[in-house]
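Could you help me review a protein record that somebody else here produced? Do not assume that whoever made the record got everything right. The record follows directly below this note.
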Amino acid sequence: MTDKNVERASALDTATLSDALDRHGLNGQCYRIKPRSTDSRMTGRAWTLLYGPAGSPPGTVGDYIDDVPPGSVIVLDNGGRDNATVWGDILTEVAHNKGIAGTLIDGVNRDVALSLALGYPIYSRDHWMRTGKDRVQVEATGVPVNIGDVR
């Protein structure tokens, strides 16, 4: 997608984009993914990350944040897990300060209050307090991921 098309898409609401995808027979709607704030919007190039179960010894959970370019949307595939978060207030603050456009998670996040206070957009299945540290780890970045049924 060209930068111009990313900019054009940013002017559209999600219902319009959903209808356009339907019209072209494309599955682009991420079921069960909701904004943590109804006022949030985000548009940008996807920066993807795939999580898997933690190994022994466990790997990292959030050390990638310095590699994400400003203006990107971080897309985290945590396999829909609802028992281990992969995003919280530390990542929110760093991402916000770097000018990252927002975060999309196939899973849960925590520390919602800071994202709301900063106006930082997070879309996820839900929010919960249990950390992903020692439960999940980064398997790969910059790879195709799934958010629900969407690849």
In short: Helices lie at 3-10, 14-23, 89-98, 112-118. The mean pLDDT is 94. The chain has four helices and seven strands. The chain has two domains: 1-30, 32-141.
